[in-house]
Write a structure and sequence with these properties.
Phosphoenolpyruvate Carboxykinase, domain 3, nine-stranded mixed β-sheet, eight-stranded mixed β-sheet, 19% strand, elongated
């Protein structure tokens, strides 16, 4: 049963060949059936136009009729797959089909014996039955065309009775591998009718290939790349379709076809055999060493796109390369214990994997929940701060009203009397001074109390007290007066101090930049309120509104005349740079890198909402926006290929494609020695 025909090297390059001698199969009742196996590449056969009977793979049978017979067997066995899908699957570029064919003379003997056992039907009844059959003589195009709601054309080709009820429809104009299907079905109908009406013995001309095929198996040899894109590609034998004729089941034909598919002498060397088994066939494949392990079969998941309602299974050969001969059995206690240990280990491994994935998913959801909670609490804290400020203002207003009442009471009590009592006058003066201080505190609270305190936070051992609306006086901890400056001047001084210090520190970080750089002048940007409002609204709409950075604009070198307009009006699309990574606004966190794209001796400092950043390495001058779900991109930098020294992060550039994501802060003028 396992004897192979001697195959040479050229066998695997031919479109078809016989792969075994005559095989005999026996069922449980002792009945026998025999046939020989051939392997066929239908695509190459039909492209070579070798469909004549004299040049067929099976003597006396055209290759096209052989294809139609195989498709017919698949069609009646696999109702979920339509004939057009079956034709495309069997005729794929790298598809091969193993066909088990009976000997013609044995088939004639079997049909003759069956005629003697079964009662002969009346000829008149047969003629009435055949009156409704379609010959196909008036078909315009002899190809397959699917019609919704119609039964398969092959419904009666493999019927084991001599009744027929097949219909035939007109087909479309497209020519494909199904060419000749109507002629083939018409010939099958004629041969069946001839067998019914034949008075003498059954002859060769009234038996077709549809009577001789026992079973078929179609497979493809593919190269599958792993999930992690490693260089190694697995050689996979993909068993796409396998079917056995209904009355030939139970003889071990399916087991034989499966043994041919896993035989390296037939299919070549491979790393795995993969099959998409119907739910009813899972037990059958498991008997022959196929595994339905989910984790293991995820390695071949890219092969599962064209199959539904199936179980992905695979067979892995042993290290010695021996093929599978028969169903796996466990001969002995030792093998049984080994099998039980393997199953136990598999279950534990799967359980551990499930627990790890469950833990990771719960951690992910916990992080999302914590982030949401932190955002909600931040909003709540901001609301509490605003309420606290409002309450403080209301408290000061109430204290002011109390002081007003006390002052008016004191004046009414002592104003009419000409009393020179110093204590009374001092009381009035004290109340009036307190009232003035309270007015100033209220005005300060309404305008910029938080900004005022932040502006003086960097002054060592200092605190501030408001004198009037536009001035304040700084005092030391001991109470002695240090300085008296305008509010706006001090506020800007604190900002300029921070900008200057950051500039110096960032220049020091760059080992290739000039060490002696001093900021001489800073011009603050005065953009209109509508520009600020558009910037704030755009920041709120970013994927990650918290990602806002202070950076330097890399783009005033080409158009230095635009600097004044940017400081007064903000950025526009006319400021975009057509760089290697797209058309947009380019920025750098380091002044030494931004200076190479800026007007000599000046740098434009901006506030940029980068949001969710996409990392881009490949250059693309046609880019006009980041990928979906991102707000900006980060690149290796336009000068990274020329510099190639120092820290690579110093050459990085951020690119945004929306002018509302950028707000200018100031223009720095610097000198180098």
């Amino acid at each position: 049963m396992d004897h192979y025909v001697e195959l040479d090297h050229e066998t695997f390059t031919r479109p078809g060949a016989q792969i075994s001698d005559k095989q005999t199969f026996t069922n449980k009742k002792g009945e026998t059936i025999s046939g020989y196996a051939v392997i066929v590449d239908f695509r190459r056969l039909l492209l070579l136009a070798a469909d004549l009977k004299d040049h067929g793979i099976i003597p006396g049978v055209s290759n096209r009729d052989l294809l139609h017979a195989c498709i017919g067997l698949y069609d009646v066995s696999l109702s979920e797959m339509t004939p057009d899908v079956l034709y495309s699957t069997v005729c794929e570029k790298w598809a091969r089909t193993i066909i088990l064919v009976r000997d013609l003379h044995e088939c004639l003997d079997e049909y003759e014996g069956r005629r003697q056992r079964e009662p002969r039907e009346e000829k008149e009844e047969v003629e009435e039955e055949e009156a409704g059959s379609v010959k196909g003589s008036e078909i315009d195009e002899d190809v397959y065309e699917e019609e919704e709601g119609a039964s398969s054309k092959f419904a009666e080709v493999y019927s084991d009775t001599e009744s027929e009820d097949a219909d035939e429809e007109d087909d479309d104009d497209e020519e494909d591998f199904s060419k000749g299907i109507n002629t083939f079905i018409s010939s099958v109908t004629d041969r069946r009718k001839a067998r019914k009406t034949c008075d003498g013995p059954v002859t060769e001309d009234i038996l077709g290939i549809e009577n001789r095929i026992i079973g078929c198996a179609t497979f493809e040899k593919k190269y599958v790349q792993g999930k992690y894109k490693s260089k190694h590609r697995d050689r996979v034998i993909h068993l796409t379709i396998v079917s056995v004729r209904k009355r030939c089941r139970g003889f071990g034909v399916g087991r034989y076809l499966l043994s041919q598919v896993v035989e390296p002498k037939v299919v070549g060397n491979y790393d795995a055999v993969v099959v998409h088994a119907d739910n009813e066939a899972v037990d059958f494949f498991q008997k022959f060493g196929f595994s339905d392990d989910i984790v293991l079969n995820s390695r071949w998941k890219e092969l599962a796109e064209q199959f539904t309602n199936c179980t992905l299974m695979c067979y892995l050969p042993g290290f010695s390369g021996h093929r599978l001969l028969s169903a796996i059995k466990i001969p002995g206690v030792e093998m049984f214990e080994l099998e039980q240990e393997l199953l136990k280990w598999k279950e534990k491994t799967l359980e551990v994997y499930q627990q790890q994935v469950t833990c990771m998913m719960r951690m992910k959801h916990e992080i999302i929940q914590l982030k949401y909670t932190a955002t909600t609490q931040d909003k709540f804290l901001k609301a509490l701060v605003e309420d606290n400020e409002m309450l403080k203002t209301e408290k000061m207003l109430a204290e002011k009203e109390l002081l007003d009442y006390r002052l008016s009471t004191a004046k009414s009590a002592f104003g009419s009397e000409q009393d020179d009592d110093l204590s009374t006058q001092e009381l009035i003066d004290s109340l009036q001074r307190e009232l003035e201080k309270m007015d100033l505190r209220i005005k300060h609270k309404r305008t910029s109390s938080r900004d005022l305190m932040e502006a003086f936070a960097n002054k060592p051992n200092g605190s501030c007290t408001v004198v009037d609306e536009s001035r304040y006086v700084a005092f030391s901890q001991g109470g002695s007066k240090l300085e008296e400056e305008p509010y706006d001047h001090i506020k800007d001084s604190a900002f300029f101090y921070d900008v200057t210090e950051q500039f110096k520190q960032q220049m020091i970080l760059d080992t290739l930049a000039c060490k002696k750089c001093e900021v001489t002048t800073i011009s603050k940007a005065l953009v209109p309120e509508k520009t600020k409002k558009a910037y704030k609204e755009r920041i709120k709409g970013l994927a990650d509104p918290t990602m806002v950075l202070d950076m330097y604009f890399c783009g005033t070198l080409e158009h230095p005349e635009r600097i004044k307009d940017i400081l007064r009006q903000g950025f526009s699309e006319g400021d975009f740079t057509c760089g290697e990574f797209g058309k947009g606004l380019y920025f750098s966190k380091f002044p030494s890198k931004a200076a190479q794209f800026s007007k000599l001796g000046s740098l434009l400092r901006v506030e940029v909402g980068i949001g969710k950043v996409e990392t881009v390495v490949k250059q693309d001058r046609t880019r006009k926006a980041p990928s979906a779900g991102h707000d900006s991109i980060i690149t290796p930098g336009r000068l990274s290929h020329m510099l190639g020294q120092g820290d690579a992060s110093m050459n990085q550039e951020y690119v945004v494609f929306d002018v509302n994501q950028v707000l200018p802060q100031c223009l720095l003028y610097y000198e180098t020695s």
